[in-house]
Amino acid sequence: MEQTIGFIGCGNMGKAILGGLIASGLVPAQHIRVYNRSADSVAAIVREYGVRGAADASEAARDSDVIIIGVKPAGVTGVLKQISGVLRPETIVISIAAGVTLETLQGALPERQKAVRVMPNTPALVNAGMSSITPNEYLTQDDTENVVRLFSSFGKAEVVPESLIHAVVGVSGSAPAYVFMFIEAMADAAVLGGMPRAQAYEFAAQAVLGSAKMVLESGKHPGALKDMVCSPGGTTIEAVKVLEEQGLRAAVINAIQHCMQKSEVMSRG
Ligand SMILES: NC(=O)C1=CN([C@@H]2O[C@H](COP(=O)(O)OP(=O)(O)OC[C@H]3O[C@@H](n4cnc5c(N)ncnc54)[C@H](O)[C@@H]3O)[C@@H](O)[C@H]2O)C=CC1
Ligand SMILES: O=C(O)[C@@H]1CCC=N1
């Protein structure tokens, strides 16, 4: 029998997962039930995706085999307490919240409930997500494989230990924001060079997409790929020199370190 999925809290990230999951065809829209805080937004999601709506969190959870909690971190334990009464022992509860540990999830759920901490990212919406999967000890291997399959249906998904969650937040969960800033800055430069703005976004984004594909598909070190672009005495090395002078690498490392530290602070509650 096909599984049913309940979404509780379906904003930016929840919708990216919902859209990715439906586009993949892995779970039919009619097997998905969504509850969001505002009834209007539930109605809009039902209209847009063809899923079923729910009047409250318990209704979204009651018949679901897998529940994805997509509310802000501060709201997660409240939602878990609301749905605890309708969970079956085999129900898998997934939280995508930054800074909410498995220990916190378990503390708000019935004893021995199957719980998973997932850190996705918004490119899920375009079938290019990257998600980490951290199951608690009550998931069977089949359960974990099922969760990996769900999140792989709109990108990549890998099981990671909870100790790596801060690195995951820094390098993929939050990362689209830095990459969008980089693309925006590249496009601004192209506009400075006279290119129309829409065309500048297209050229910048395609350059980033192609470069990322080369890293993933060539097996070559990013430094070696960079060297392939830098002709001796040419244009690229001029730009590389400025990026080094202005501390691009240090800025990126520092930014991600701050991101990881924030994730750690949030995890302490
Ligand atoms: N935005 C992102 O790129 C990522 C977000 N996350 C995590 O995803 C979670 C949601 O983040 P966003 O989607 O950005 O936030 P958002 O504010 O866009 O979405 C949250 C949704 O939950 C709803 N909501 C709030 N309280 C509720 C309740 N008690 N019951 C039902 N619905 C409720 C809100 O109406 C809203 O639609 C956060 O915990 C965040 O840490 C994780 C990875 C990436
Ligand atoms: O900014 C945040 O806290 C969330 C978690 C990862 C991406 N967005």
Would you give an account of this structure?
This protein is an alpha/beta fold and 269 residues long. It has 2 domains: 5-161, Rossmann fold (3-Layer(aba) Sandwich), CATH 3.40.50; 173-267, ProC C-terminal domain-like (ProC C-terminal domain-like fold). Helix content is 54%, strand content 13%. It is built from 12 helices and 8 strands. The chain has an 8-stranded mixed beta sheet with strand order 3-2-1-4-5-6-7-8. The chain is elongated. The two termini are 39 Å apart. The model has no long low-confidence stretch (mean pLDDT 97). 1,4-dihydronicotinamide adenine dinucleotide binds at residues 8-14, 35-38, 41, 57, 70-73, 75, 79, 96-98, 119-122, 173. Keywords: Amino-acid biosynthesis, Cytoplasm, NADP, Oxidoreductase, Proline biosynthesis. Residues 4-99 form the Pyrroline-5-carboxylate reductase catalytic N-terminal domain. InterPro entries: 6-PGluconate_DH-like_C_sf (IPR008927), NAD(P)-bd_dom_sf (IPR036291), P5C_Rdtase_cat_N (IPR028939), P5CR-like_CS (IPR053790), P5CR_dimer (IPR029036), Pyrroline-COOH_reductase (IPR000304). One of its GO terms (biological process) is L-proline biosynthetic process. It comes from Enterobacillus tribolii.
CATH superfamily of the largest domain: NAD(P)-binding Rossmann-like Domain
Structural class: alpha/beta
What is the string of SSEs from the N terminus onward?
A: EHEHEHEHEHEEHEHHHHHH
Count of discrete structural domains:
2
Strand content: 5-15%
Helix proportion of residues, in percent?
A: 40-55%
Radius of gyration, taken over Cα atoms and rounded to an integer in Å: 21 Å
| Spatial strand arrangement across the major sheet | 3-2-1-4-5-6-7-8
The overall pLDDT average reads 97
Could you list the spans in which at least 5 consecutive residues all have pLDDT below 50? none
Q: In DSSP terms, counting alpha (H) and pi (I) runs of 4 or more, how many helices? A: 12
Compounds present?
1,4-dihydronicotinamide adenine dinucleotide, (2S)-3,4-dihydro-2H-pyrrole-2-carboxylic acid
CATH class term of the largest domain: Alpha Beta
Q: Specify the overall morphology.
A: elongated
Largest sheet, in brief, is:
8 strands, mixed
* CA distance, first residue to last residue: 39 Å
CATH architectural group of the largest domain: 3-Layer(aba) Sandwich
β-strand number: 8
CATH topology of the largest domain: Rossmann fold
